[in-house]
Amino acid sequence: MHVLEADRAGDSPVDLLDPAAVAASMVGADAIIHCAAIPGPEGIDPAELVHLNSLASFNALEQAWLAGIRTAVLASSGSIYGTAWAGEWAAQTIRYT
C-alpha cells in the first residue's frame, strides 16, 4: 500500500476546498483517511463552518472516487453530537409525572 500524508502534497499543505489540489494529492493512493475539519464554532460563523467542512469532505470523497480509489475512512470529533454549540452546561432537574 502506498501511503501519502493526507494533508500534504510534497512540502505544501493541500487546500481541501480546491478539487484540483485534492486530486493531485491523491495520485498513487490506494485509500484515503479523511480527518480534516474545523471541530467547533469558536471564531467562525456556524453556517460557514458547516459549508467548509462539508465541501472539504465532498472534495475528498469525490476526488477519490474519480481517481478510482474505493476505500475511504472518515473520522469525526465529538462535535458531531452538538456539544461544541451547547455553551455552558448547567445541572437541570427534569421531573417526569
Q: Give the rounded overall mean pLDDT.
A: 80
What's the number of helices? 2
Distance between the termini: 59 Å
How many beta-strand runs? 4
Structural class: alpha+beta
Portion in beta strands: 5-15%
Biggest sheet details: 2 strands, antiparallel
Helicity level, as a percent range?
Answer: 25-40%
User: Which value, in Å, is the CA radius of gyration?
Assistant: 18 Å
Basic shape: elongated
Please state how the strands of the largest beta sheet are arranged side by side: 1-2
Report low-confidence residues grouped into runs of 5 or more.
none
Helix-strand sequence? EEHEHE
Structure description:
The protein has 97 residues and is of the alpha+beta class. It is 29% helix and 10% strand. The chain has a two-stranded antiparallel sheet with strand order 1-2. A two-stranded parallel sheet has the order 3-4. α1 crosses α2. The termini are far apart. 12% of the residues are buried.
Task: Describe the protein's topology.
Layout: E1 8-9, E2 12-13, H1 19-25, E3 32-34, H2 46-66, E4 72-74
Parallel strand pairs: 3-4
Antiparallel strand pairs: 1-2
Helix pairs in contact: 1-2
Protein traits:
single chain; two-stranded antiparallel ribbon; 2 helices; elongated
Give a short overview.
By secondary structure, this protein is an alpha+beta fold. It has two helices and four strands; from the N terminus they run ββαβαβ. The longest helix has 21 residues, at 46-66.
